[in-house]
Write a structure and sequence with these properties.
11 helices
Length: 182
């Protein structure tokens, strides 16, 4: 299979028409819109597994492998639809392997732009719901050992891409920072 054909297959995977990233059916979207996503609600074991699966797959697997996992990625995305986007990011940036995976994903421009578009939509929805409060941002910054001022400025200005870039640049990786790079 040629790269062009693989990219066309992947195009169907990355139609981020909602903040749910991978959940594509309209009943999931309706249910999502009705759910208040609570940043302070702890992630379940299944949610953590789904986030690990999505981020690791998109960051580390080949494009052909990602295309073959379209259905399971969509299912995993649907199962994390109720996760607050900052809770999602906090989990990713507290897990060493996921920090490496998101860094790898950023190096894959097409995968990265589609992933980031979905994340931006999710953050924008929570902003419109006034669900990015000062206390929430304070906890987020504290958990990741970052400056609240920097986080607050990026969120208040709705610089979602800059926020993720800031996290990638500023959340330190432990030990040998290149050990997971692919």
């Amino acid at each position: 299979m040629q790269i062009r054909q693989i990219l066309l297959l992947l195009y169907g995977l990355f139609l981020f028409s909602s903040p749910m990233m991978f959940a594509q059916n309209s009943s999931s979207l309706s249910a999502y819109k009705a759910v208040w996503r609570d940043y302070y609600f702890p992630l379940t074991k299944k949610q953590k597994e789904n986030i690990e699966y999505i981020v690791s797959t998109l960051g580390n697997d080949s494009l052909l492998s990602i295309a073959g996992k379209k259905s399971s990625l969509q299912k995993a995305g649907g199962q994390i639809a109720e996760v607050h986007p900052l809770q999602f990011l906090k989990f990713v940036f507290l897990e060493e392997k996921l920090k490496a995976s998101i860094h790898n994903m950023k190096g894959r421009s097409w995968v990265w732009s589609e992933f980031l578009d979905g994340l931006k939509k999710s953050l924008e929805m929570e902003s419109k719901r006034e669900n990015l409060t000062e206390d929430l941002l304070e906890d987020f910054a504290l958990q990741l050992n970052l400056s609240l001022l920097s986080i607050d400025r990026l969120v208040k200005n709705k610089k979602w891409g800059d926020l993720v870039d800031f996290l990638i640049a500023e959340v330190p990786r432990d030990g040998n920072a290149t050990r997971y790079d692919m």
